[in-house]
Specification:
9 helices, five-stranded antiparallel beta sheet, elongated, Rossmann fold, 10 strands, single chain, alpha/beta
């Protein structure tokens, strides 16, 4: 069977390579489709010339996963492997190079567009693309396009736990302090939003199209969903929250339009103009928040990710907040 995945690594990093190989197999990739030089079951044949065997495996591979740890080591052979895999004069199918940055130091050779790090969000994206993106490592099709989001989350968490056992100098760890969630728009949806001339049309597009990705803390609880809820849209969050406060008609609702306006400004690269609209928690009586679009990521394919932070107001609702007229 062809070696669809080639794990490029220094021998000292063979344990990290074995973690990826193990998880690929848990996800139903056959061992015979994986090349790992430090695993005798998936490596070269002893006694035969090394480089021709490597060239053959690299010519078959659709995905080369380069494990990069620290810059003070010799990466010449790994870079040779990546060079062979991406040789423009080679008539074999195009190969995808993905660099896993295990430490804090960025490789000077590869750009950010091929790098993912030992962070939960990066591993979630890698796992999702590995399963669902057409041609990620299987030509002209996705590996498991129908796999449920809960399974992907479980697989990403398991991979993260296994990789965290490796103590590398300067490994970066992110710790969030506020409840937050991420909304995502595809490139096509972002273009549709730009083309919409009426605010109501923009609100409709965002509510229907912006999907909830990663959430942290109790962010989804404040809308009435459990933290494990999946495949939600911004419209789902708004609708569940509005149902939860039906018995309280005086509750401010301006945060909904404000959040949509800020997402549109972000896409147009216009400076933020928050009006600090308040939102009442669906879960906890007396808890109020400022839902603020804090950070936006523009991905290489033109899609967008918006990080919305739930900044809780200490104590009771401020007296100067204007409630809607009765």
């Amino acid at each position: 069977m062809a070696k669809q995945i080639f794990i490029s690594h220094r021998h000292d990093d063979h344990e990290i390579a074995s973690v990826f190989s193990k998880h690929f197999q848990l996800w139903s990739v056959p061992l015979s489709s994986i090349f790992q030089s430090s695993d005798y079951r998936a490596s070269t044949v002893i006694g035969e010339p090394l480089r021709p065997q490597l060239r053959q495996a690299l010519s078959e591979a659709r995905l080369v996963l380069l494990i990069y740890t620290t810059p003070d080591k010799d990466w010449e052979f790994c870079l040779w492997e990546c060079g062979v895999a991406t040789n423009p004069s080679d008539e074999t199918p195009e190969t995808r190079i993905v660099l896993f940055q295990a430490g804090a130091t960025v490789s000077r050779v590869f750009g950010d567009d091929v790098v993912f790090k030992l962070e939960k969000d990066d591993l979630r994206k890698f796992v999702a693309q590995f399963h669902k993106h057409v041609g990620f490592f299987i030509r002209d099709r996705a590996f498991q396009p129908e796999v449920h989001g809960d399974i992907l989350e479980t697989r990403a968490e398991s991979l993260y736990r296994d990789l965290m056992q490796f103590s590398l100098p300067g490994t970066r760890e992110e710790r969030y302090r506020w409840d937050r969630f991420t909304l995502a728009l595809s490139a096509a949806q972002a273009r549709q939003l730009r083309d919409a001339s009426e605010r109501e049309d923009r609100y409709r597009i965002l509510k229907e199209s912006a999907t909830v990705g990663h959430s942290f803390g109790q962010a989804l609880l404040h809308f009435g969903y459990t933290t494990g809820a999946r495949e939600l849209t911004l419209g789902d969050l708004v609708a569940r929250w509005e149902r939860s406060i039906q018995g309280d008609p005086d509750t401010p609702r301006g945060w909904i339009d404000e959040l949509c306006d800020e997402m549109h400004r972000s896409i147009e690269d216009v400076p933020a103009r928050p009006s600090w609209e308040v939102m009442k928690s669906s879960q906890y009586p007396g808890w109020w928040f400022y839902p603020i679009l804090n950070h936006t990521r523009v991905l290489p394919d033109g899609s967008f990710e918006f990080d919305v932070y739930m900044y809780r107001i200490p104590g009771a609702l401020p007296a100067d907040v204007e409630l809607p007229p009765v």
